[in-house]
Amino acid sequence: MQASSINTDSYARVIANSKRVRWDIEDDVVRGRRFDLTKSFLPGGLSLAGELPFLQVGDRRLFSQIQGRSYAYVFGLVERFISAKVLEISREHWLGDQLALEALVLMTEEEIKHQALFRRLETLMEADMPAGYRPAAEPNAVAFAVLGKSTWAVLALTLHIELFTQVHYRAGIAAEADICELWRDVFLFHWKEESQHAVLDELEFLSADSRLTPAERDLAVGELIELVGAVDQILQAQAAADAAYFLGLANGTFTAAQRELVAATFLKAYRWQYIVSGMLQTRFPKVLFATLSPEQVNRVNDAIVPLLSAAPVEPSRIVETA
Asked: Tell me: the pLDDT tens digits for 101-112?
């Protein structure tokens, strides 16, 4: 399929930016370092550790570090299906716009690199953190399930994911974010490439949308809602596993109510990080809702609104809403 001249220019800019910001896992990100266990891994704007005032300083740090370990796991998981889908849709450009093809091939290469980055981080954390951490889902099983949905639904989910990495980047570089420097660099370098990917996601999503009949789009909206629900199920399972891991390691002694609040805050933080933060950005709902009928917008909102309670008290500090 031939891209328009406007889209061709966008693909060309993505290629140029991608080559300009290209980085290496060992030489640029890790640089021979290990994670600093005297520091938090995720900033408070993401971990929501500050919403548990009864935690001691060390336990608040542990709360964040466990979330950092799950951050690497979750992104390694989602980028498995993203790279596969991008490779699949690149065929639309095989005999068409070669700049579009090059941009998507570069994106696939970078997403595979991101998987390798997060596996590397998991290895470092596994070596230095206590035994007992448990991932909640198997990446290939998740990828097979996601890739069984329509391209429209998968690309909508992918755009959402790659936009909320920009929220994470802003949180990670905030002046008040006293976090491990290696983690700060993970946010930085991941964002450099994901910000380019979001441009491609939008182009390809709109292209896929242009080929749908109204009936097909209506089915795809249902699939997107199902995918968000599936993501939430993974987050619920991971939050429960991480809460149990935390409570087995924490130094503090907690009441039954506090233990329940720890588990609830893990889930709130994960919903905030991986679902709500993307929906509160202007760009994702603007792109998505422009393709939908009022009834379809209501369906999406009905599915998302129950999750919005996961937003922290002051989300505007790190979410761009204008």
From this structure: 999 999 999 999
